Known about the structure:
Elements: H1 6-25, E1 34-38, E2 44-51, E3 54-56, E4 63-67, E5 79-88, H2 92-103, E6 110-121, E7 124-135, E8 138-151, E9 154-165, H3 169-180, E10 183-186
Amino acid sequence: MHHPSRPLAVALAVAVSALLSACSASPPPAAPAAQTFEVPDSAVAATVTTPDSWDRAGQAAPLVVRSTTPSGDPGFTANVVVTTSDPGTATLEDRTTEAAEALQTSADVVMDPTQPGPVTVAGLPAYRLGATRTVDGVPVTQVETVVEVATPSGSAFVYVTETYATGDAEGAAQARAVTDSLVVTPAG
């Protein structure tokens, strides 16, 4: 029995085979380079990984990593700041309330209701909130992620703050990738 679609199927299989052979002759593209930074003077061991195009700001603490490519005019550089707090009796709700109050310190801050609220970061309970404001005439988005870390002495917290020009989609994506790269190991 003759199947009219059989020659088409054979031709398609040959074409796919040739394409796969051609692709296998080329080496796979290199993964983007990355670098890992430890949070200094931390209540818990914490690290984040950045794209190779980011660097660390000069101060010892807190950990500040930033893009080396400003966005917009006059230019705002996406950055991530990571700090920690010592273990104690505070809850994630307490620390989130404090973070929300801290975000609202300047008159032009507008809280962003589109931030997801409760999230999981590094396998740990966290809360994400955000706001927009203007810095040197540039609209800026700031997203705070508060991560709770259980320790034998109570809950410690890791605070990861992403800041980027509101129109900088690449900076926003890179900053979120830095936050999502967080690795935390409780001390003691």
